[in-house]
Fold:
Amino acid sequence: MEDNNKQQQKTIDLGKIVNLLWTKKMTFVKVWVVTFILSCIWIFPQPRYYVCEVMLAPETSDENAMGGISSLASSFGLSLGGGSDAIYPELYPDLMSSTDFVVSLFNIPVVSLDGKIKTNLYEYESKCQKTAFYNKPISWVKKSIKDIFSPQKEIIKIETDPFMLTERETDIVNKMRGDVSCVVDKISGVFVIRSKAQDPLIAATMADSICNRLQDAIIRYRTNKARVDVEYYEKLVKDAHEDYLKVQRQYSSFCDSHKGAQLQTVLSRRDELENEMQLNYNIYTTLIASLQNSKSKLQERTPAFTVIQNASVPVKPAGPKRMFFVAFMLALATFVTGLYFLRDDLTKTILFYSKK
Structure:
């Protein structure tokens, strides 16, 4: 008999729960109406935003000896890095979020789809952003409080210096870090660049410009040593060519001024100049060969990128998901309200199982 009573106590009476909630149906209706109105007031003034994606497959620089090991590791979702490169695909997101890279995007020219906005990316992010009406008084209050406790004057600068950003520039940099992102697939090595903006054309422009500048940054890094070598050999070739021409002029002038002379001292001096001219010519030709070799290495070190998906103007906004938000808030309000009405039964159930 006692076991039957305990079994009855353990059983949850769903019919009783449904009847209890049904008696509170008018309360649920009121909660739904209030939740619906508040959700609409909150979400519908939020400005729409668009997302554009670009997919790239970079050329890897793994050595032949590491190729098999890297392929085996990638099959398990691992990565051994980029061989001799210090900047490999897994570090591209960190490169994009660096202050120097973000500041380099400030001067990108942008035009809105309707043509009303024609400015650069910095001015667009700082002055052309739409916001919900309830955010304006909140922003005004925050700004007023900040001015009271830290009344610092904004520094006027001609150019943005990544080493010393103003407070306004720092806010824009942080905002742009949230608007652009880079996701790398560790197995395939493909990385996706995403840009977010309130205008579809500006979102596509940002994605395309970021893609090009990221490629330029990677190319500059990968070819830095080879470019230094090319510049060094170009300087040596130029100096060697000048030395050769200088000795050649001396030899020609000496031969013209001592034409027909048979003195041994004259002949010895002529041979000496001729040998010096030949030596400078040999040095010049050798350096030209080294210059051509360094240019070949520069070409070999220049990475190639395969664009899998180009930037295109998005047709539909990516968010905010207004209907999903309203539906989620209604479901959440229903769940919380139901828990409130069932709080006594839930408390008894929890206490019952805690005593076992």
User: Anything to note?
Assistant: The beta strands are 50-58, 109-111, 118-120, 180-184, 191-197, 305-309. Confidence is low (pLDDT under 50) at residues 63-84.
